[in-house]
Specification:
Elements (H helix, E strand, L loop, with lengths): L18 H28 L6 H21 L3
Helix pairs in contact: 1-2
Length: 76
């Protein structure tokens, strides 16, 4: 079953690679954190305009959590 907030099927390649993992590898830690922060702003900004308000806000939270974990992993 697809989880549209935490792990949507359409963000996974046929061989199981998650898009967010490819982004993290391509951008490095600082770039990944910036990407997550920007994407969280995007979801909060559009909240309720394209999907359910709550779902967009949950997606923003997921990106902020990923950014926070990346910061913690480096001791920030």
């Amino acid at each position: 079953m697809s989880d549209s907030v935490h792990q949507p099927d359409h963000y996974q390649s046929d061989d199981g690679i998650e898009c967010i993992d490819a982004i993290r590898a391509a951008l490095g830690r600082e770039g990944f954190i910036a990407h997550c922060r920007g994407t969280a702003i995007k979801y909060a900004w559009r909240s309720g305009k394209k999907a359910e308000h709550a779902e967009d806000l949950r997606k923003a939270c997921v990106y902020l959590e990923w950014a926070a974990k990346a910061m913690e992993e480096s001791g920030q």
